[in-house]
Design goal:
Length: 256
């Protein structure tokens, strides 16, 4: 049975001191999270502060929001997997739609990032999702399948077992307009079918597929009610400790 995973993507919010404050408040509200996994993904500059602020028995683990595929070199402004590991990251978000859209990241680059993360035993959280015009043109399945196969090219079955997918329709992110859970379920089923074809049915049953896009305290239960949805990647709602704590509590209530 796949454990529910909740990821909080802080995007470009919170200085290091603000991040420590948020973690202190969240830790009071969520001292334990039995039955579910919870990952915090603050900006690079707050990773150290968050790691320091987490209590020893914290249920939260740490992720970065991006990485470069080389371990080191002349890549001004970039951050590598070994740097993230040393800061205490266990996972890394890769291919978020904001990186694809605003920074023109291609599937080939995203693939290099996934492979770099795996080389360093960082768990990639690979984001996939169609734009509104792609959806309206009936291309959702084609787009997410292309992103899946492009992003995971050259990944072994063992590597795949380290990966989490997050299906995030671009039109649902940040706008308060979440996708209907029924449609999300269909996309997740399709992704699992492609994984079964390429990596085998064991891998398809094991991989966690999250939903992301305007997840809130009021709609998260609807997503987690689907056996195809193994958790949520939460943007805006994770910046408010009370909301994020409520989402984690609802996930615990839905734990399998
Ligand atoms: C996200 O950051 O991937 C996201 C889904 O954001 P929001 O929850 O704000 O839509």
């Amino acid at each position: 049975m796949r454990r529910i995973l909740i990821v909080g993507n802080w995007k470009m919010h919170k200085t290091a001191s603000e991040a420590a404050d948020l973690v202190h408040r969240l830790s009071v509200l969520v001292p334990k999270a039995d039955g579910v996994d919870v990952i915090l993904a603050p900006p690079f500059t707050a990773l150290h502060a968050v790691a320091q602020a987490l209590p020893r028995s914290s249920p939260f683990t740490l992720a970065a929001q991006n990485l470069h595929w080389e371990d080191q070199g002349a890549f001004t402004g970039e951050v590598s997997a070994p740097m993230l590991k040393e800061l205490g990251c266990r996972s890394v978000i890769v291919g978020h739609s904001e990186r694809r859209r605003l920074f023109r990241e291609s599937d080939a680059e995203i693939n290099q990032k996934v492979l770099a993360a795996l080389r360093h035993e960082l768990r990639p959280i690979l984001c996939l999702g169609e734009t509104l015009p792609e959806r309206e043109a009936g291309r959702t399945e084609e787009v997410v399948t292309g992103q899946l196969l492009g992003g995971l090219a050259g990944t072994s079955k063992d590597g795949l077992l380290m990966v989490t997918l997050s299906y995030e329709p671009v039109w649902a992110i940040g706008g308060g307009r979440a996708a209907p859970p029924g449609q999300v379920t269909l996309v997740h089923e399709r992704l699992r079918a492609v994984i079964a074809r390429e990596w085998g049915s064991e891998a398809a049953q094991a991989i966690r597929i999250l939903y992301g896009g305007s997840v809130s305290t009021t709609n998260v239960g609807g997503f987690l009610a689907s056996p195809q949805v193994d958790g949520a990647l939460v943007g805006g709602a994770c910046l408010d400790p009370q909301s994020f704590a409520t989402i984690i509590g609802l996930a615990q209530g839905a734990a399998r």
